[in-house]
């Protein structure tokens, strides 16, 4: 009886908890052009600062909370990213780029510390602890990979007091390969652990087969005007799935050629025949279901989540028909391009996204492409396009070129361009130059401000931050040259000939008027810099060769150098033995003489 | 040891020692050439092997085929419809097809001028972004619209389109794949690769609007042949005799020959029985191509940028179809995709003599080095000789006019060397060499042949004039002739020895052709010898060798010069520098020596 009572109390309590909207989760699906699908998972929970300080963690993951307390971290941002966002076809980035990092792992945090040294020490603690928690090589973020950005990052949370003692540290591991081992600890941080709710769709096979994916963890304090400060943790996963690739069954993932009768052909071609098929446009108008794309069904909803927030939303025009499993209520939003689904807690959720009906007389690729575009929400044009690549060749020096394009016809873009380069790329600051495409001369007005912290060999990397302004509808080429230094023999990694990854440049577009918050963030792709690499079997050969040469040649050569050659009869007698024998013979001779003299006398 | 050294020191003063170098030089040349001929033997060459374990060639199943053949046929129709149209029209159509596949497409214009001809066109290329990659690395698949023989690469271009569609379906690519279609086989790829590495002259070649990461390898398809084929011909020579990593060739051999069961041929050896004559022929053909340093296909331009590349050319009449060729490319790309590091293991300097036999640089280099060293030996010997007083030919004992004591050192008084004139002559020869170099690289096409005829006619006269001028104006002594020869051979030996490490074949070819120069000397008393030597030298002069080889391969001399000028301007080929600025000056100096008439009286005075 008592047990039953306590159970009842517990369930009541949990109801109260969930009603207090401390946790919610949401999945937003957005079909993109070229048969891609953007899925944004968002898990957010709040905890009051007082509860956090008294170790009453509730929805906040305890493992992470303790690390944050131990390292005096006030705000934390951790990113695991893979692939690249195709801005040309997919448009603006989700969350305005605020929830993504460059390829690999990125970490930045505001630590509270009295001095820089103390901050460094705490940073070391933090990276090491996070490294263990997320099974990532975050402990390799050492002094050479850590920078202290001055202009680029601004705290997202509210820090009413203690702004003076806050230190921003930024570290990046471009070569870290994000994989399932990082996803598992991520899911463990969720209150429902991926057992129920939208997190059940997170299958490692599908997530890491995505064309682009980014896992983000953001911890920030938020102080509403009317209430107590809360610490908010937001875990987001964004991924762009290639629908055609994702639809392949898991037991047969090999893209074998289709049987010829299943091939979609353009029958308008004059040569079209049974054995000749001009393929119809690339997978236009894909039909898909949720379980096909994610490899499994969505199992109910997490009981802890705030019921006011719909768990699944879909961003397609209202004209597009979507079928959902029974018991799910579809609510179309007023904006005309999005709808959300209310799901009953126990039922599995399934969604079928059928191929749109063809209107009459539509043959040919162009018409189909138009329909395909009409069926997705038109992607928003990003504020800036950025593309970075190496110039030059050879192993001595090189250059970096970043092409920045402002697509807007009437507004200029002001942003901060930040590079954190490894120390072995020694940049020539006098070669930093920006010129508008079409003009050959560099334009001094594009770069407004430069913050440059030079590298120290083996101690810290280069930090370069530039505040730039790009006029409307202009393409700017930002270039600089660098020299590659030669590493020590032991400093090369085992795969030295692969090259060295250079972290993505971070571009923070400033909000006009409001100074603190970034309007849009984007990152370039990372680069692979090949350094002069020795032939690692060479030292071995050299040692053998030189030893032999010295053994054979040096002895003889030394002998010749230190000796003087004279004819045997010319020079003085030399050598101890000879001297001795000479003396001996002299003595003997004298003796013999005496003897003969004696004999003569006789 | 000391006794040995003492013996050597005594030997140094022996007059017989100075008679040795010509024989030593001859021996070096002989050994060098015989060394080369020994290489194809089993004992001196090695079997090839895959050094980079990550490549795993032929270890994957290839799935290209089935209904992809229907697609290929359709693309073939599209390509056939484009034959004969302009470059821009072709590119527009290709662009629309590739865009339909969901790839990013861009174009690049280029205009080269060489020998008064304009080579221009537009490259079109598409980038298949690695599904999960981050644009750090890329591999390239090239098909030139026209191959080196000016045939339309119908199957190659259709195959590249089909493969682009097929590769798009795979999610396993770790590197971006660039599909490049160029209007021709040499200038187009060169323009593209130059621009990719920002090494281009922006006045002639456009920058690339779209780029990917560091290029890790490239495969070119040259499939102009219609119908089924039997074997694949691997073309691997780069510009200036640079070669791709041997691992790449081995991978293709192992995939095409081992996995697909096709024949593999090298160096246009359509039949190869793996016996000594065939091996030697393959090797010599390879050396000749390497020595000429011309671009041999679309892959050639990639190699100077340390991007390993080969061209695959199906040939013969067999039962392999286009899909089999596609599977070879697929298998090779899967292997390249496996690479963790840039190809660096295996060999970059090798001579292939059969698809599975090679010699590496350590084995073949002594051959060219010995030939180069023969010049140096002779140069040193002449330098020593020029420091000793001239002795009349008949009496080896020095005239004991001074009546000094018979100490051996006293019989060899050092003679002052008069080096101003020899240095001047050698410098003159070297600097005159700039004229043919400039002339043949900058004259317009119609003038190339007349210029060459005039030059070839002047060439035998030039030494005569120079020698006549020398004898009448300066009356050089025997010692000065010796010094001219010494300096000239010293330069030749030095240039060839260092060239041997860069382009072995060119160094060896020039070395062997210039080897008579070692034995040239003035013949003041024998007109017959002088004429014989002059005739010999003129038969191995750069111009006559050029004429003879053009006649042998039935080429027009104007075409040869035009191609050379094109390669010089577009690909940066340096063979003309070696011919005109290394070989020709040495030849000129050698001929001047042969025609020389040393002034004996002047020499005698000096000694006294």
Automatic annotation (TrEMBL), chain A:
Keyword tags: Membrane, Signal, Transmembrane, Transmembrane helix
Pfam families: Gpi16
Signal peptide positions on this chain: 1-19
Transmembrane portions of the chain: 538-562
GO biological process terms, semicolon-separated: attachment of GPI anchor to protein
InterPro entries: PIG-T
GO cellular component annotations of the record: GPI-anchor transamidase complex
Protein name: GPI transamidase component PIG-T
TrEMBL record, chain B:
Record flagged with keyword Transmembrane: yes
Record has Transit peptide as a keyword: no
Coiled-coil region: none
Pfam families named among the record's database cross-references: Gaa1
Residue ranges, annotated region (Disordered): 389-410
Record-level GO BP terms: attachment of GPI anchor to protein
InterPro entries per the UniProt record, alphabetical: Gaa1 (IPR007246)
Taxonomy, superkingdom: Eukaryota
TM segment ranges: 20-41, 361-384, 447-466, 486-519, 531-553, 573-596
Keywords associated with the record: Membrane, Transmembrane, Transmembrane helix
GO cellular component assignments: GPI-anchor transamidase complex
Official protein name in the record: Gaa1-like protein
């Amino acid at each position: 009886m008592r047990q039953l009572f306590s159970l009842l109390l517990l369930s009541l309590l949990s109801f109260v908890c969930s009603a207090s909207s401390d946790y919610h989760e949401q999945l937003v699906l957005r079909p993109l052009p070229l048969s891609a699908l953007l899925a944004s998972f968002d898990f957010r929970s709040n905890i009051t600062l007082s509860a956090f300080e008294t170790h009453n963690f509730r929805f906040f993951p305890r493992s992470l909370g303790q690390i944050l307390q131990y390292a005096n971290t006030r705000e934390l941002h951790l990113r695991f990213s893979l692939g690249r966002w195709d801005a040309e076809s997919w448009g603006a980035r989700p969350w305005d780029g605020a929830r993504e990092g460059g390829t690999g792992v990125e970490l930045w945090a505001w630590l509270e510390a009295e001095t820089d040294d103390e901050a460094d020490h705490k940073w070391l603690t933090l990276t090491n602890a996070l490294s263990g928690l997320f099974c990532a090589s975050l402990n390799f973020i050492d002094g050479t990979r850590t920078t202290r950005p001055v202009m680029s990052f601004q705290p997202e949370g509210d820090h009413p007091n203690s702004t003076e003692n806050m230190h921003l540290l930024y570290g990046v591991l471009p070569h870290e390969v994000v994989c399932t081992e990082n996803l598992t600890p991520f899911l463990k941080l969720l209150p429902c652990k991926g057992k129920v709710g939208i997190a059940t769709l997170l299958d490692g096979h599908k997530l890491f087969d995505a064309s682009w994916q980014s896992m983000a963890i953001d911890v920030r304090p938020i102080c509403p005007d009317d209430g107590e400060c809360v610490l908010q943790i937001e875990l987001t996963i964004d991924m762009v799935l290639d629908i055609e690739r994702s639809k392949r069954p898991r037991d047969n993932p090999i893209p074998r050629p289709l049987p010829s009768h299943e091939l979609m052909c353009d029958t308008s071609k004059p040569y079209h025949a049974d054995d000749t098929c001009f393929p119809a446009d690339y997978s236009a108008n894909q039909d898909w279901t949720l379980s096909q794309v994610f490899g499994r069904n969505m199992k109910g909803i997490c009981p802890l989540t705030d019921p006011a927030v719909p768990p699944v939303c879909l961003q397609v025009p209202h004209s597009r028909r979507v079928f959902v499993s029974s018991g799910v209520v579809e609510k179309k939003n007023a904006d005309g391009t999005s709808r959300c689904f209310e799901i009953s807690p126990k039922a599995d959720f399934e969604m079928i996204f059928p191929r749109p009906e063809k209107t009459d007389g539509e043959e040919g690729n162009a018409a189909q492409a138009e329909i395909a575009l009409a069926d997705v929400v038109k992607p928003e044009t990003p504020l800036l396009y950025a593309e970075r690549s190496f110039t030059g060749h050879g192993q001595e020096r090189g250059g970096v070129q970043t092409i920045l394009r402002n697509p807007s016809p009437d507004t200029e873009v002001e942003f901060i361009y930040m590079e954190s380069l490894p120390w072995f790329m020694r940049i020539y600051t006098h070669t930093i130059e920006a010129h508008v495409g079409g003009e050959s001369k560099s334009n001094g007005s594009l770069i407004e401000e430069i913050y440059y912290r030079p590298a120290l060999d083996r101690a810290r990397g280069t930090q370069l931050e530039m505040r730039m302004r790009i006029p409307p509808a202009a393409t700017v080429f930002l270039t600089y040259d660098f020299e590659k230094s030669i590493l020590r023999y032991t400093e090369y990694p085992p795969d030295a000939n692969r090259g060295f990854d250079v972290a993505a440049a971070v571009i923070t577009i400033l909000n006009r008027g409001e100074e603190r918050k970034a309007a849009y963030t984007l990152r370039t792709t990372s680069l692979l810099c090949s350094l002069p690499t020795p032939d690692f079997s060479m030292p071995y050969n050299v040692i053998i060769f030189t030893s032999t040469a010295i053994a054979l040649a040096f002895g003889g050569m030394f002998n010749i150098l230190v000796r003087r050659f004279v004819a045997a009869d010319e020079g003085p007698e030399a050598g101890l033995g000879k001297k001795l024998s000479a003396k001996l013979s002299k003595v003997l001779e004298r003796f013999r003489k005496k003897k003969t003299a004696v004999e003569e006398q006789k | 040891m000391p006794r040995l050294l003492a013996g050597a020191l005594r030997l140094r003063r022996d007059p017989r020692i100075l008679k040795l170098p010509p024989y030593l030089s001859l021996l070096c040349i002989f050994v060098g050439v015989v060394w080369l001929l020994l290489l194809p033997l089993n004992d001196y060459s090695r079997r090839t092997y895959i050094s980079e374990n990550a490549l795993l060639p032929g270890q994957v199943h290839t799935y290209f085929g089935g209904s992809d053949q229907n697609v290929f046929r359709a693309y073939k129709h599209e390509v056939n419809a484009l034959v004969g149209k302009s470059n821009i029209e072709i590119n527009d159509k290709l662009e629309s097809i590739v865009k339909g596949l969901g790839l990013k497409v861009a174009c690049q214009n280029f205009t080269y001028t060489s020998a008064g001809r304009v080579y221009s066109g537009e490259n079109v290329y598409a980038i298949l972004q690695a599904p999960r990659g981050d644009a750090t690395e890329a591999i390239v698949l090239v098909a030139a619209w026209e191959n080196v023989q000016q045939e339309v690469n119908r199957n190659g271009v259709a195959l590249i389109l089909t493969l682009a569609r097929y590769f798009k379906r795979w999610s396993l690519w770790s590197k971006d794949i660039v599909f490049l279609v160029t209007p021709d086989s040499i200038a187009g790829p060169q323009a593209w690769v130059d621009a990719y590495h920002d090494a281009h002259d922006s006045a002639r070649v456009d920058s690339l609007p779209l780029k990917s990461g560091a290029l890790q390898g490239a495969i070119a398809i040259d499939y102009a042949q219609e119908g089924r084929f039997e074997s694949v011909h691997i073309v691997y020579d780069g510009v200036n005799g640079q070669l791709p990593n041997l691992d790449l060739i081995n991978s293709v051999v192992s995939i095409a020959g081992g996995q697909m069961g096709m024949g593999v041929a090298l160096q246009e050896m359509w039949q190869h029985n793996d016996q000594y004559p065939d091996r030697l022929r393959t090797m010599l053909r390879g050396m000749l191509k390497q020595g000429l340093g011309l671009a041999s296909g679309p892959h050639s331009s990639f190699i100077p940028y340390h991007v390993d590349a080969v061209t695959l050319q199906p040939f013969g009449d067999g039962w392999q179809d286009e899909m089999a060729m596609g599977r070879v490319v697929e298998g090779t790309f899967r292997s390249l995709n496996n690479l963790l590091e840039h190809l660096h293991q295996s060999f970059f300097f090798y001579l292939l003599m059969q698809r599975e036999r090679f010699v590496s640089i350590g084995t073949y280099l002594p051959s060219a080095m010995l030939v180069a060293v023969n010049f140096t030996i002779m140069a040193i010997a002449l330098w020593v000789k020029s420091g000793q007083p001239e002795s009349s030919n008949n009496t080896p004992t020095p005239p004991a006019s001074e009546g000094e004591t018979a100490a051996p050192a006293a019989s060899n008084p050092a003679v002052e060397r008069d080096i101003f004139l020899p240095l001047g002559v050698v410098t003159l020869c070297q600097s005159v060499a700039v004229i043919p170099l400039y002339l043949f690289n900058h004259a317009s096409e119609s003038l190339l042949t007349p210029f060459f005829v005039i030059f070839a006619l002047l060439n035998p006269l030039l030494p005569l004039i120079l020698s006549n001028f020398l004898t009448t104006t300066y009356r050089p002594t025997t010692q000065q002739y010796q010094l001219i020869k010494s300096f000239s051979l010293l330069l030749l030996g030095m240039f060839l020895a260092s060239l041997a490490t860069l382009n072995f074949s060119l160094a060896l070819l020039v070395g062997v052709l210039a080897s008579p120069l070692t034995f040239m000397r003035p013949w003041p008393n024998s007109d017959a010898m002088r004429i014989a030597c002059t005739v010999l030298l003129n038969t191995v002069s750069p111009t006559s060798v050029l004429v003879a080889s053009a006649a042998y391969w039935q080429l027009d001399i104007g075409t040869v010069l035009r191609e050379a000028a094109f390669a010089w301007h577009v690909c940066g080929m340096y063979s003309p520098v070696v011919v005109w600025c290394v070989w020709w000056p040495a030849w000129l100096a050698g001929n001047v020596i042969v025609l020389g008439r040393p002034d004996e009286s002047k020499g005698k005075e000096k000694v006294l």
